[in-house]
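wait is this the right file?? whatever heres the structure
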């Protein structure tokens, strides 16, 4: 017969969950942050792969946009290299001034205001969903380049499976996922260094003709389309190759996961990424030009390049396949940046109430599980919408990332203008960000104009919808906060009469176990409800609180210590108030990522010590319950009540009315 014991079923599900997602992290481990943090090389793999992988589609899009004017690829390679280093240097400055990370959202919020911040954050979120989607789609394209066309109908299903695998890896933990994917990254680096250097050296005799063709091409086009025509053609190709630079922001956004000292680690990672990306993108363009490559249906331009270069080698087809397969695999690693940084941006916005607060919560593996699942689900939906078309995705992708880039560079420019009296080198720093701003705005405007009807409109529509939802969510939280503020004004400092109860708590007396968070009118209202509704019933009150570790507090040992101290001080204030009201009181606390789990365990422990105990907790109650209330406000009180009542411990939820 099958088991009918719920506890056995729960244990089985827990074992399965831990087998897939891994065991919980121990918050008491003094080396926890050191173990989870990434050294520069691993950060280069986890975050820099996003930038490096863009060489799989960025240079190709730019080269195709040149059409018959491929001689301009020589100049394009130089300008691409300069752009990579300029934007990377600008973001290195951002790393210095925002050492706790946060990227474009934090920069725009702090330097331009919350309205710019929510635009930047929303654009980033959509961008990271597209990072996952375009990376996986390009990965599948690269691999399927070596399969018969008949199999190409399976591209989208295979891409969906890969996204699900990445969701599982990232729920297990960032360092674990990066360590698993690191060998793939290194295979890409080795194979592409060999391919690109071989491609340049073996065709070194073509340099003189290429330079000659450049001069002849300019002379020919000046007479046919004019200097302005050449400039506009070049500018268009440069802008449509903007996907090449899209991963640069990832490093500044992911500083929280880097090894101390974070600023130095972040800047080293940025150097690794910028150098590898500039080298790969520029040499790819040069190889396209030296070999005079033409697009082949069903193959990426890089696959055509690998086939042409390794054709004369022993086992050349196998080597070409491994090279392009590693490129596809690197794109899988690049999707990792979306899963690392997307939920982090979401959590920062959740802390600021632009997103449901639950997205700031950490799982038992200390990962942002809710954000990871949402990013993965959205990426799968986008994959089906575009049918995995890299051409459509690269347009949608580039627009949003350059919205964020432009706002970040604008914010930093404003910052140095305001600090011109304090910083003697302000003009030098300002010039870098102004150049970066000009480049980013140029790419943004041209890409949006050129590709508006080819998918650009959809990007702007999705981003606008996300921004609108953020404002609706923030508006609701502000209304609720105003209602709770009225409780704070009324209850936090109300006078008490009568003697203070200094007696120790008595385990044999009826005891009220009250679950509280910070010291607030909400908790005071619940305490007063207990004492007035159950007058003269309870002789003891034990206050229970869980110092919840979320993405806002999980930044280092100092932040965690500060959180514990704040929680303890709040509990002591509750105890003092209860004793002034004539009741013996004490407190218990725990540190954890799951309030329900930790609070339930504490209540069970207290029930053994105080056998005549009842658990009380408050819950926000609205006059008209709306469908979105459960999503925006956690159901912690009901979840705890269900668990405790199942184990036989009486739990009472007291309503706290809020007029919204």
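ok assuming it is, sequence goes like this
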């Amino acid at each position: 017969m099958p088991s009918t014991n719920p506890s056995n079923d729960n244990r089985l599900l827990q074992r399965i969950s831990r087998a897939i997602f891994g065991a919980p992290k121990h918050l008491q481990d003094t080396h926890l942050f050191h173990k989870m943090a990434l050294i520069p090389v691993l950060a280069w793999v986890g975050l820099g792969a996003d930038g490096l992988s863009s060489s799989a589609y960025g240079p190709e899009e730019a080269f195709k946009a040149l059409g018959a004017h491929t001689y301009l690829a020589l100049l394009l390679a130089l300008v691409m290299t300069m752009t990579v280093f300029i934007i990377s240097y600008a973001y290195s400055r951002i790393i210095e001034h925002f050492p706790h990370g946060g990227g474009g959202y934090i920069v725009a919020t702090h330097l331009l205001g919350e309205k710019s911040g929510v635009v930047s954050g929303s654009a980033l979120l959509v961008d990271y969903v597209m990072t996952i989607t375009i990376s996986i789609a390009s990965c599948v394209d690269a691999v399927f380049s070596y399969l018969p066309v008949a199999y190409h109908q399976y591209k989208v299903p295979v891409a969906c499976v890969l996204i699900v695998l990445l969701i599982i890896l990232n729920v297990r933990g960032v360092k674990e996922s990066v360590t698993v994917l690191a060998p793939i990254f290194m295979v890409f680096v080795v194979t592409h260094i060999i391919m690109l250097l071989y491609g340049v050296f073996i065709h070194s005799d073509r340099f003189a003709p290429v330079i000659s063709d450049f001069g002849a091409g300019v002379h020919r086009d000046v007479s046919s389309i004019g200097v302005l025509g050449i400039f506009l053609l070049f500018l268009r190709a440069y802008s449509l190759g903007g996907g090449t630079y899209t991963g640069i922001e990832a490093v500044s956004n992911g500083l929280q996961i880097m090894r101390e000292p974070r600023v130095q680690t972040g800047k080293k990672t940025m150097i690794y990424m910028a150098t590898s990306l500039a080298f790969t993108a520029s040499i790819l363009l040069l190889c396209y030009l030296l070999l005079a490559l033409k697009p082949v249906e069903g193959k990426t331009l890089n696959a055509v390049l690998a086939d042409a270069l390794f054709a004369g080698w022993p086992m050349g087809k196998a080597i070409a396949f491994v090279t392009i397969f590693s490129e596809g695999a690197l794109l899988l690693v690049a999707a990792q940046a979306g899963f690392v940084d997307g939920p982090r941006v979401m959590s920062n916005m959740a802390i600021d109430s632009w997103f449901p607060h639950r997205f700031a919560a950490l799982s038992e593996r200390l990962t942002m599980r809710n954000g990871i699942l949402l990013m993965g689900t959205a990426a799968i939906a986008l994959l089906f919408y575009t049918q995995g078309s890299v051409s459509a995705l690269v347009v949608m992708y580039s627009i949003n990332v350059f919205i964020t880039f432009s706002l970040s560079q604008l914010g930093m420019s404003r910052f140095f203008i305001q600090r011109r009296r304090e910083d003697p080198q302000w003009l030098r720093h300002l010039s870098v960000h102004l150049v970066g701003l000009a480049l980013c705005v140029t790419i943004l405007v041209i890409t949006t104009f050129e590709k508006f009807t080819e998918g650009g409109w959809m990007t702007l529509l999705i981003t606008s919808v996300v921004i609108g939802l953020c404002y609706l969510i923030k508006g609701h939280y502000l209304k609720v906060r105003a209602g709770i503020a009225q409780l704070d004004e009324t209850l936090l400092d109300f006078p008490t009469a009568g003697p203070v109860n200094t007696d120790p708590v008595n385990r044999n007396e009826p005891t009220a176990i009250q679950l509280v968070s910070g010291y607030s009118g909400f908790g005071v209202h619940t305490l007063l409800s207990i004492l007035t509704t159950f007058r003269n019933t309870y002789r003891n009150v034990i206050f229970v609180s869980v110092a919840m570790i979320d993405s806002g507090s999980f930044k280092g040992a100092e932040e965690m210590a500060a959180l514990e101290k704040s929680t303890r001080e709040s509990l002591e204030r509750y105890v003092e108030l209860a004793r002034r009201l004539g009741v013996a009181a004490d407190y218990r606390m725990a540190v954890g990522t799951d309030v329900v789990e930790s609070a339930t365990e504490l209540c069970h422990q207290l029930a053994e010590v105080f056998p005549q105990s009842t658990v009380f907790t408050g819950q926000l109650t609205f006059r008209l319950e709306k469908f979105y209330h459960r999503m925006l406000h956690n159901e912690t009180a009901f979840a705890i009540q269900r668990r405790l009542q199942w184990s036989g411990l009486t739990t009472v939820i007291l309503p706290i009315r809020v007029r919204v």
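The chain has two domains: 35-401, 492-658. so i think its the right one actually
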